[in-house]
Design a protein that fits this description.
Elements (H helix, E strand, L loop, with lengths): L2 E7 L3 E8 L4 E8 L5 H18 L7 E8 L2 E3 L4 E4 L10 H9 L4 E5 H12 L7 E7 L3 E7 L2 E3 L12 E4 L2 E4 H5 L1 H12 L6 H9 L6 H22 L3 E5 L1 H4 L4 H12 L11 E3 L6 H8 L6
Parallel strand pairs: 1-4, 4-7, 8-13, 13-14
Antiparallel strand pairs: 1-2, 2-3, 5-6, 8-9, 9-10, 11-12
């Protein structure tokens, strides 16, 4: 049974896990990020890797390689984290530094959403002659496309669903600004005229049937449906899987999005409604995908 280490790097936490070539997660650990300094951030990545090996019964000799998911733009060929919104790693040579640290030549790096999408594609048993889309709704919004067994990357920045404009409250705004976690919190605080309101409280208010939260969730899900409709029109995918904390922790959103999406679609597009689902891997899709990419490159 071959094994690899998958690393999912974010602005608040770093997850590391030992993954088999079949996608089984054997051991996982998590440490806090330290985005105050590029070297401190790298030290936390090293800590995560060392912790997951220490907690397991495996040695480096049993590890085939490392897969790393990093936010933002990534130079995969040269192993460089090019640009991120929430990390101090502009032009940071991640692969070279990990090779130097651990003496492991086999290291694969990619954008974190692409890593998660690969795990979801495998979990959904995606076919090599279909179009598969993974959409993450969390602190930000993004998507990744696997078409005919390969990632569709465009010129290198494809999948930035959060940048697509949608009509919200009578004005065109980027989807991420009106439907991601922080945007929901800000929108609800403004509508309800309160200063302190957590995103989770907005969803709790809705599920508890409180009338004041109904129009807020209605607006958010309509915004999301507009974004998904753009995907439906441009790609006509065979399968679409949602991930990210906003929708994974609030699965009722899926049916609301479907209802609104159906209004926008013509009948020939509605096949996707039965092929939309929420991740079963949840918060582990990033590390699982990173680990799997050591064994299979697409």
């Amino acid at each position: 049974m071959k094994k690899a280490i998958g690393i999912d790097i974010g602005g608040t936490k770093i997850a590391a896990a030992i993954i088999t070539e079949s996608g089984e997660l054997l051991k996982r650990t998590e440490v806090k990020s330290d985005p105050s300094d590029r070297e401190k951030m790298f030290a936390q990545v090293v800590e995560a890797v060392e912790q997951v090996l220490e907690k397991s019964s495996f040695s480096w000799a049993e590890i085939e390689g490392i897969g790393v998911g990093v936010p933002g733009k990534v130079d995969r060929e040269n192993g460089i984290a090019v640009f991120q919104n929430n990390l101090p790693w502009e032009q940071f040579p991640v692969v070279a530094r990990l090779q130097e640290q651990f003496g492991t030549e086999q290291i694969t790096i990619d954008n974190d959403v692409y890593m998660a999408a690969f795990a979801e594609w495998k979990a959904a048993q995606g076919k090599s002659d279909e179009t598969f889309v993974y959409v993450t709704i969390s602190t930000g919004i993004s998507c990744s496309i696997i078409h005919n067994g390969s990632f569709f990357r465009g010129a290198g920045f494809a999948g930035e669903l959060g940048l697509i404009p949608v009509l919200s409250k009578g004005a065109n705004k980027r989807l991420e600004k009106v439907a991601a976690g922080p945007a929901i919190q800000q929108f609800a605080a403004k509508e309800l005229q309160v200063e302190h309101l957590a995103t989770k409280d907005v969803f709790a208010g809705y599920t508890n049937g409180l009338p004041k939260y109904q129009p807020i969730i209605n607006e958010v899900t309509d915004n999301l449906a507009q974004g998904i409709y753009a995907i439906s029109c441009l790609l006509d995918p065979n399968k679409l899987v949602f991930g990210g904390s906003v929708i994974v922790n609030n699965p009722f959103l899926l049916e609301l999005i479907k209802e609104k999406l159906k209004i926008y679609q013509i009948p020939e597009q509605q096949h996707i409604l039965d092929q939309m689902s929420i991740s079963t891997l949840k918060q582990n899709n990033g590390v699982v995908g990173a680990g799997l990419r050591v064994f299979e490159s697409i």
